[in-house]
Amino acid sequence: MKSVKTDTTITMPRSHPKKSSGLLRQMGKRLDLYLMLLLPVTWYVVFHYAPLYGLQIAFKNFNPAKGILGSSWEGFGHFQRFFDSYYFWRLLWNTLSINLFSLLIAFPIPILLALIINEIRNKTFSKWLQNITYIPHFISVVVIVGILNVFLSPHTGPVNLLIEAFGGTPIRFLEEAGWFKTIFISSNIWQNMGWQSIIYIAALSGVNPHLYEAAKMDGASRLRRIWHISLPGIAPVVIILLILDIGHFMNIGFEKILLMQNNLNLESSDVISTFVYTTGILKGEYSYTAAIGLFNSIINLVLLLLVNRIARKTSETSLW
Amino acid sequence: MRKRWGRKMIMMMIASSLMLAGCNSGGTNNEAAPEVSKNDVHTTGFPIVDQPVNLKMFTRIAPVNGTFKEMPVFQDYEKLSQVKVEFIEAQTDGFQEKKNLLFASNELPDALFRSGISPLEAIRYGSAGQLIPLEGLIDEYAPNLKKLMDQYPEIRSGITTPEGHIYAIPGIVTLSAARTDKKWINQMWLDKLNLEVPETTEELYNVLLAFRDGDPNGNGKQDEIPMTARVGLAVVSAMSGSFGLDSQLGYNINIENDKVHIWMGSDQNKEMLMYLNKLYKEKLLDPEIFSHTEAQYLAKQGSGNTGFFFDQTNNNFLSIKDQYTGIAPLEGPQGDRLQSQALPIARDFGAFAITSVNQYPAVTMRWIDYFYSDEGSTLLRFGREGEHYEMKDGIPYYKEDFLKEISNQAKITPYAGGGAPHLISEQVASFINPPQVQEAQQKLDPFMPKVRYAAPMFDEQTAQEVNILRNDIDKYYEEQSTKFIVGAIGFDKWEQFQTTLKKMRVEELEKLYQDAFDKMQK
Predict the structure, then answer these.
(1) DSSP character at residue B294
(2) pTM of the model
(3) Is B25's CB within 8 Å of A54's CB?
């Protein structure tokens, strides 16, 4: 029986050398799988590729009554207007810096947490730690911002009451531009570190336990084992996740930033995506903000390609 | 294995990252709506049509309102007019967004009711053909509105584009008390602390100090809020008259000898912001003024724990109304004393508009016109006689047992929550403008500007220019003023503020307004 099976798989392609019909035949053989693929492909075409044709309004003066095709061409005028705008550098800096800092600070923390959880011998404690760190992930953004408002209120917030108890003066955390990024990023960390660490914990459990035993025999300390076995073991996952993070680098935290924004922290909270929303949707400047959004996406794409290339050069792992 | 997974991921990433700029929209043009032959529409009397007509209207509902379908005004009017209106309701939160998406996707209702369309939107969507010109329809089918426009010519000039079109109808307010916020001060606290009603900004400062320190509510704690206002820069428009700053043409503009002056970079403005900064620093101005919500602000009014604030009516503190009294504008350091926070007679621009998909524009115009009569306005605001209101000396008053539950009122009328297209005259003002409010208004009257110019209508191209300029300038002005008031930036940065305004071409903006004003004068 065994030999028959291998025989057929080998001879099948040989007996049908024509490539095109071969593909169809292959598809026919796995029709069920391809049917399952049909739905996501349709979803992408309808919702992600078809709307791309609307991108042209970035180069037009979009007039809803005339439709996308009927509107007159503007060329690069909207881009020019954005680059000349007073807010251009501020928007670009805020967008880049919030995300860059998030990446630098928030990205390593789940890895650290995963390593700690992995090293804890007491199973009950490690389960407990894992639970309390990932539960905040399920709180909605609106509620999180509400919690921040309550906790950081200058009069009644526990944080400021504590500061006052120690003789300090209350800080208007949410109304000072200087505090915005710190609060935004640290609350993000609090909310997401447990959740993001799950994938690392999974990766860690896949590391061959014999390696640890061998290292122990050789007298490696716990830190040594983490450094030489755990970290290299999860490195490919880390790199893939890093590149995926870069993939939506420019769009992180739109809702949360919007909810936390006010006139007093606008200087450091005004980012491209919120600007696109307030100017485009609320003031109806569709073409102008489509141009800004396109610009945003291009930066993002360039960043993604760049990081992927660096990853491929310096390590074996990359997305493509 | 890893690499193949990656390839799929990248496809998704590119697609989704480009999505942000994508925007899908049907590009269908509207065919001209077939006119109902004139015989079908009765030009006078009711019903408007013999055969029932269905209309879809997009509308905003305020948090206090119930659904429009259940309001007696629309139920009764449907029977009277034979026009069935189906309302597409959007909450005040997110209303602007929904309205814009409606136009952007070109999925239009027949009309927009209580729509808060701005002059710029009216021009943009009007010249695009999504809103239809109404001037002809008004002449033919809107006798009530036409009469008001003849009586007050500024209504017509305020809503007509340079090309001579009217794309949106305003809410009309002939009652001056309904066009400005009164200045309410806590008379009980003044009496307790043996203080006079303040006449100048300096006296106000001292009164507020006393409110803060004198414990006028007598609970032994320093928990009084000496002065508060609506969220954001409302306090600026409420106080600007004391510093000689007017709000003509719907913007931060003074007009002297036919010269338009945008005052944002002026010394008077600096003086005002310094004054407000002083109040804020010394905790005389509510520290939550830039963060509290509308509801919180209204609750503060009702708490009786505030010293000085601004509101059009006394509705929000009715239960303790005797504690407060309306005062005249304060005299500023340069002797200025102006009530600059006042709106034109065409108070709510763009309250109603008809779109190009409407098959019965004439019917729709007659339908809305009724609310510009005293009778229609009474129906809209008071509901059914006997059930909700009764007449006393020819003026409608809500019945007392109906008002027992105060929230009843907003459930039966779309005017609660503001911005409904109708006539507000003394005839229908018994609830929102009772004697106390009228008295407060009388204190303001001597200081009202002689003319209040509404925001001008620009032609399409100029409107676009104004829009581009104002987008940057207004954002900058709001942000910086807020910072000056709370002291996040010092006044040593004032010159920088002025330079930046110049860089944002505020002078060009001034010129555009000057041109528009000159045209209005012709």
Answers:
(1) H
(2) 0.78
(3) yes
